[in-house]
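I'll show one example:
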Amino acid sequence: MVQIAIDAMGGDFGPYPIIEGTLLALKENRSFKAILVGKREKIEERIPPRFSERVEIVNAEDVISMDEPATEALKRRESSIYKAVDLVRRKEAEAVVSAGHSGATMSLATLRIGRLHHVSRPAIATLMPTYKGKKTLVLDVGANVDCKPEHLFEFGIMGEAYARAIMGVDAPRVGLLSNGEEESKGNELTKSAFKLLRNVPTFIGNVEGNNIFDASVDVVVCDGFTGNILLKTGEGVADAISKLMKKNIKRSPISMAGALMMKKVFRALKKEIDYSEYGGAPLIGIKGCAIVSHGKSTPKAIKNAIFQAINYVESDINRFIEERLEEMARYKG
């Protein structure tokens, strides 16, 4: 049975959505055990007796708040996220899920759990919707603001492995995010990374921002600074479109009638761009599994983050990543 450590105190709304999401996951999936880490009295009162055998509570009195620097994480050994990550380090859990301080989660997971062989820096990966119904994996979206060419090369290999093992893509197309498709386009980082990535059999070359959403590529590689801006811009555009549609529909009775007919379409669109459908973003490249969830995660988002962690563990993706990086190590220089 897979054991998942869950930071019960992380998130903007306290333990309630975390615990409720855990219970939803336990109801739907009997193949895992939840280890909730946080203030025992706040957790115990919300756990029904029927789940007592599948829920373990690890007491943690300290919580790292969102406005504190990530460097605090290593000093705060009594914090919920430190203890949750340490369960994975000690192999008492196979994955950690946290909607708390993302910087603290990434720092602790990298330094306490450690990196896979041949991985210089782990990367945060996220799925972006396309108009053809498929998903595009983008990494890195925030773990590494400053990158070297060899880091982007590793991201390409790790993204390819994730697409095969988790997304079920047999021959994932890997692209390098740039300001043009030509090999000569880009800055010094992308030009140098291109030379390394072209040794990857599934590499299709440079791709532009619009290609992320047209299903012409399966994995898009970029540095964490660019990726995070891309992610936040995508979220903002999706939210703005939704609000603009509602605003204009209310102005006209004819538009309102048409909106009722398009209700199913709107519902499907909302589902495509709703982060709670994915639950969180995996930190790829560590000796274990860490899922970084949104601070405003709902119970549904936490449930899906737990399911994502289970899929990650059961896919044996880390072994595949190490094997692929070993095969391609000679090209990294």
